[in-house]
Amino acid sequence: MLINLEALDQMFMDSPAPSHLTYDGRCRSCGQEFRIEIDHHISGGYGLAGGVLYMQEADKLTAICEACYRSNPELEA
Ligand SMILES: [Zn+2]
Predict the structure, then answer these.
(1) Residue 2 CA to ligand 1 centre (angstroms)
(2) How many whole angstroms from 21 Cα to the centroid of ligand 1?
(3) Is pLDDT above 50 for 72?
(4) In the chain, where are the structural domains located?
């Protein structure tokens, strides 16, 4: 499933920057290393750019790059 708000809240709680962080990972689909930029909006909510994060298990994230996500949005982690 897609990453949930609680997990994003936790990521930002652990981050020194309160409104922006990056996730460096390897795409599960194509194997390329890439970066996801995550913005925490003051109004609430999160914006992800560059790829998609999935939760496989409680605290295990899987990343998929934007190109793969676009070519196959149904991809399940
Ligand atoms: Zn990819």
Answers:
(1) 16
(2) 20
(3) yes
(4) 5-71
Q: How far is the CA of 63 from the centre of ligand 1 (A)?
A: 9
DSSP-assigned letters across all residues of 13-30: HT-SSSSEEEEEEE-TTT
Cα–ligand 1 centroid distance for 43 (angstroms): 31
Ligand 1 centroid, distance to 23 Cα (angstroms): 14
Give 45-77 as a DSSP string: -EEEESEEEEEEETTEEEEEEHHHHHH-TT---
d(CA 47, ligand 1 centre) in Å: 19
- Residue in this structure with the two tokens 């194997």, named with its chain if needed: 31
Q: Tens of pLDDT along 6-59?
A: 888 888 888 777 789 999 999 999 999 999 999 998 887 889 899 998 887 767
